[in-house]
Q: What sequence folds into this?
């Protein structure tokens, strides 16, 4: 059973930074794609960023230039978030695909104070 655990969320002021981590129960390189989504209260879950096994990245236009994905050589993917804005407030979820199966973490709350 694949497990994904997010961490690193918290409360930060406008303009601040946070780094989220997504730790997998196995090697992060087992996944074809690792992605980050977020869901704000009353809104649908939205795509934020993704990284393929080969390292190619894609970002939503709302975060391009401010957020950056990376991964270590073991089992963790990261989302570095800078210049945070109040509209970035949401629960952030890690998502990963292995074969045709997709997995979600439990989410981590990010709150940006204006």
A:
């Amino acid at each position: 059973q694949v497990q994904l655990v997010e961490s690193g969320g918290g409360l930060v002021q406008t303009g601040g930074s946070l780094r989220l981590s997504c730790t997998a129960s196995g090697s992060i390189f087992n996944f074809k794609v690792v992605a980050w989504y977020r869901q704000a209260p009353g809104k649908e879950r939205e795509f934020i960023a993704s990284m393929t096994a080969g390292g190619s990245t894609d970002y939503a236009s709302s975060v391009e230039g401010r957020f950056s994905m990376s991964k270590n050589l073991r089992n963790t993917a990261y989302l570095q978030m800078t210049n945070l804005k109040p509209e970035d407030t949401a629960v952030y979820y890690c998502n990963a695909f292995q074969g045709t199966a997709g997995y979600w973490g439990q989410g981590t709350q990010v709150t940006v104070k204006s």
Q: What stands out?
A: The chain has a mean pLDDT of 95. The first strand starts at residue 4 and ends at 7. The chain has no helices and eleven strands.
